[in-house]
Amino acid sequence: MSNQHKVYVSYHPEDEFYWRHFKDLFSETYGVIVSDSIRMRDFRMGDFDDIALSTGKMRRYIRDNYLQDTTVTVVLIGANTWQQESVDWEINASLHQTEFYTRSGLLGILIPTYITPWDKCYIPTIPLRLYDNVVCGYSKIYPWYDEPDVLLSWIRYAHLRRIEVQPINSRLPLRNNLSDKR
Predict the structure, then answer these.
(1) 61 SS3 class
(2) How do residues 81-133 score in pLDDT, each as one tens digit?
């Protein structure tokens, strides 16, 4: 197994500062290359009427254009990440394995904009597809940490888990951003 990982970072657009910080922290050192993230203007699932057709097209588009050579997807979890349809699509595509692409490891990082609910229950304050995979043991959620060696160990662990645990990817993809009303 190679020690180098190409990481895809999924995040809410309002948290771009943390994406840039994460990218700068690794900046192609420590054996991690951070790929560019998808932008909403590139693809809108709501443009299709047939959800089965659009789900396949969405996964293929994201996988072919953004994830094709990534090994781990990191979800930066801020206050509104759970609402973002593109984050759900990116997790969906990361977990989908085909004859041409292997699934990616998955982990979540609670960034400083994340507000911990009073009961410490993550639903629905994290993306539900990520939550499903934390529950089944495929993924883990960690607090924001500015130490590259620690982050690298989380990435390596997520990469190993993708082989050892079967992910859950059965939810229908979001067709629009969710509202703030919980």
Answers:
(1) helix
(2) 988 888 998 999 899 887 778 899 999 999 999 987 655 555 568 999 999 99
The 10 Å Cβ neighbour count of residue 68 is 13
Residues 86, 176 contacting (CB under 8 angstroms)? no
Q: Which residue in 136, 175, 135 sits closest to 51, CA to CA?
A: 175
Q: Which residues pair with 32 in a beta bridge?
A: 5
Position 1 confidence tier, pLDDT thresholds 50, 70, 90: very low
Q: How many whole angstroms from its chain centre is CA 124?
A: 16
- Pair 75, 10: CB distance under 8 Å: yes
With a cut of 50, say whether residue 7 has pLDDT above it.
yes
Distance of alpha carbon 8 from alpha carbon 66, whole angstroms? 8
The model's pTM is: 0.83
d(C-alpha 154, C-alpha 13), whole Å:
23
Do 176 and 143 contact (CB within 8 A), yes or no?
no
For residue 6, what are the β-bridge partners? 33
